[in-house]
UniProtKB/TrEMBL annotation:
Domain of life of the native organism: Eukaryota
Protein name according to UniProt: NEBU protein
Gene, per the UniProt record: Neb_1
Keywords associated with the record: Actin-binding, Repeat
One of the record's GO cellular component terms: Z disc
GO molecular function: actin filament binding
């Protein structure tokens, strides 16, 4: 099946001047690393003479000197100690200002005057601020806040005191239940009173034994001449086979 194809595919020839072939050759040259480095390899194979005063060499040296930390600090090291302009550091306004700033930022020196004077403060006992602090401490004190109610300092016959006592009596659970506690154990109800009968009737209604009483245990008699009895008798005679025969 493939014998003819295997013979033909080895004999196919494409013209070399077709656009596809030309484009493929150009693409091969563009992506060829050898063709890309051809000029550089030819230049390396030849001998070259690069002088020390050439522009690229001078540019490289200048860049190295600029980037060098030693060259960067060379001028600073030469001028160090020559730009103060004063005989002592205290005469230089900038150094004096820097020293003053350091003193202001020092926390120990900042608190020195306070620590020296805090033990020498004398406040009168009857000063307004001291009295106000005492009153405030009394107000926020838990001991004074929780004092007992019987430690009143007002007169017992004042209107607000009397009103408060009445309010306490109305809210008191002991006073509210005092009459009930006095009547507890001494109450009596007769058997024929309405309350007792109502309770007994409610018990009969709620009693399961009375609710589920079998009908056979009840005593009742039917009326002889009632319409239901007469109708039942008439129907019995009509369906009676004995009378029919």
């Amino acid at each position: 099946y493939r014998e003819a194809w295997d013979k033909d595919k080895t004999q196919i020839s494409v013209p070399s001047d077709t656009p596809v072939m030309l484009q493929s050759k150009v693409n091969a040259l563009n992506i060829s690393n050898k063709h890309y480095q051809k000029a550089w390899d030819e230049a390396k194979a030849k001998s070259y003479d690069l002088r020390a005063d050439a522009i690229p060499i001078k540019h490289a040296k200048a860049s190295r000197d600029i980037a060098s930390e030693y060259k960067y600090k060379e001028t600073h090291e030469k001028q160090k100690g020559h730009y103060i302009g004063c005989r002592t550091a205290q005469e230089d306004p900038k150094l004096s200002w820097a020293a003053r700033a350091m003193l202001l930022q020092n926390d120990r020196i900042y608190r020195k005057a306070y620590h020296d004077s805090k033990a020498q403060v004398h406040i009168p006992v009857d000063a307004m601020s001291v009295q106000a602090a005492k009153d405030c401490q009394t107000l926020v004190s838990d001991v004074d806040y929780r004092q007992y109610l019987h430690q009143w300092t007002c007169l017992p016959d004042q209107n607000d005191v009397i009103h408060a006592k009445k309010a306490y009596d109305l809210q008191s659970d002991v006073v509210y239940k005092s009459d009930l506690e006095w009547l507890r154990g001494i109450g009596w109800l007769p058997n024929d009173s309405p309350d007792v009968k109502r309770v007994k009737h409610a018990q009969d209604l709620l009693s399961d034994n009375v609710y589920r009483t079998p009908i056979e245990s009840l005593k009742y008699t039917s009326i002889v001449d009632s319409p239901d009895v007469l109708l039942a008798k008439t129907n019995a005679e009509q369906v009676s086979i004995v009378r029919y025969n």
